[in-house]
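TICKET: design request
STATUS: open
ATTACHED STRUCTURE:
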């Protein structure tokens, strides 16, 4: 089902298109676009679909992809590293979550929350430092490719501490809520 005809003017303006530009792109006259927007004529289903398909195509091109904003390298730990090493890395880098790798393959995650929960579970918190990350790690963070729009990343971050970004199967970056907020504040 197509959106209402009243949406045409709103979407055209949100894309910074003049009536003339839209008309040229869709293959109709500027006066026809004006008449559609004022409700003086009802275009055919085909022309209406062409207009909305064009809007969708232009909007997708304008979407910011996560690969455009990635910075730096991914900091993580190996599954056989100790929890104390993971904590040290978190303290040194200021990150509150880390991906866990088995070689180059992502196998889980460890967060400050994971460690704090383990302190509550164990009788002696000191023994936690020598335990391997693998024994307390949680599920891996969601993974997306670098062409994923930041709107999708924002949705994933509602449910996850971080999102990993890959390119051709290789981890290229990690995005957190703080990264997304920093990007928004710069733009």
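STATUS: resolved
RESOLUTION: sequence designed for all positions
ATTACHED SEQUENCE:
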């Amino acid at each position: 089902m197509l959106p209402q005809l009243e949406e045409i003017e709103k979407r055209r303006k949100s894309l910074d298109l003049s009536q003339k530009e839209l008309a040229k792109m869709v293959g109709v006259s500027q006066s026809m676009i004006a008449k559609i927007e004022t409700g003086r004529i009802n275009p055919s289903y085909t022309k209406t679909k062409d207009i909305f398909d064009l809007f969708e195509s232009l909007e997708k091109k304008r979407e910011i992809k996560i690969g455009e904003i990635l910075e730096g390298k991914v900091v993580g730990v190996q599954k056989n590293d100790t929890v104390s090493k993971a904590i040290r890395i978190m303290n040194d880098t200021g990150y509150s979550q880390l991906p866990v790798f088995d070689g180059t393959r992502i196998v889980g995650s460890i967060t400050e929350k994971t460690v704090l929960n383990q302190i509550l579970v164990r009788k002696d918190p000191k023994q936690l430092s020598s335990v391997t990350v693998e024994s307390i790690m949680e599920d891996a963070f969601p993974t997306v490719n670098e062409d994923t729009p930041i709107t999708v990343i924002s949705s994933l971050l509602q449910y996850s501490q971080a999102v990993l970004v890959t390119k051709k199967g290789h981890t290229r970056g990690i995005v957190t809520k703080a990264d997304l907020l920093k990007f928004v504040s710069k733009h």
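CLOSING REMARK: The chain has a mean pLDDT of 89. The chain has two domains: 7-62, 67-186.
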